[in-house]
Every structure is written in C-alpha cells, then in structure tokens.
Design brief:
157 residues, alpha+beta, globular
Amino acid sequence: IRPARREDAGTLARLGNELARFLSSPQIYTAEKFERYGFGPDPRFEVLVAERAGEIAGYALFEDTFNTDLCAPGVWLHDIVVAEAMRNRGIGKRLMAGVARLTVDRGATSLWWGVLSWNAGARRFYARLGAEDEDARILELGGPALRALADRADSRE
C-alpha cells in the first residue's frame, strides 16, 4: 500500500471505469481528471494504491472531512476499487487498513463511506471489517437541479 503518484493516473482511471461498469454508471474517468483533481495545484482527494507484483491491483480514494456527529475530524472514503482479476486476495482489506491507519494517524475519529443497498457482497465485506451498517441515505444534487437551486441563492423566495 502506498500513496498514488501522478504517473498512476491512467491506471486509476481504468480501475475507476471498471467500477463504473459494475455500477452501471457512465465511464467518465480519465487520466487527465485524476491528474487535475488528485495531483494538481489544488488536490480535491487523495488515493492509496495497492500493488501486487509491481502492478496496481486496486485503490482507495478519500478526503478529509468533519464528522458533525462527533464534532471531530474524519475521513470520507469515496471509492475502494480492486481489479476484478485481483479480488479475494486480501487487497481490499489491506486498502481499508491503510486508510484506517491514515485516519488514526491524522487524529481523525471516524472513517465514513457509502455503499449501495443492493451491493450485498460489499456490505458483507465491510461487516467483516467491523463496520456498522447504519440506516442512512446519501443524497445527491447535481446537474440541472444543482444549477437551479444555486440560481435561487440570490432570490428572495
């Protein structure tokens, strides 16, 4: 497990698109986006990668956050991806342990992430790590709805 480097961006994009295919989502990842948002002058996230035999086998993408339930720093894990050919070899567990170590070393008190309710395999994996499966929903506002609400910021309605 090691921090990702700029030269890993192409592999990260490939793995991100592999996850997107699994989730039936658009394959929007590119090396350029990883370089800009992860390794540019204003990084928006961090990535740990797992290497096996000199190849990147998976990654964990995360960012610092603030846990208002505890009034303390936390880490939000956006994605954990293990290449399909590399699954069931402990790579995901090592990635999660790496992010947990980083979380503790930063003095943060929690590591949070979301999982789709239909993804039973991922939920079992996280349960084996000791994660609590809270009855919570993650909501998203994007695209035209985000713009419409933003446009209302200056209105008096």
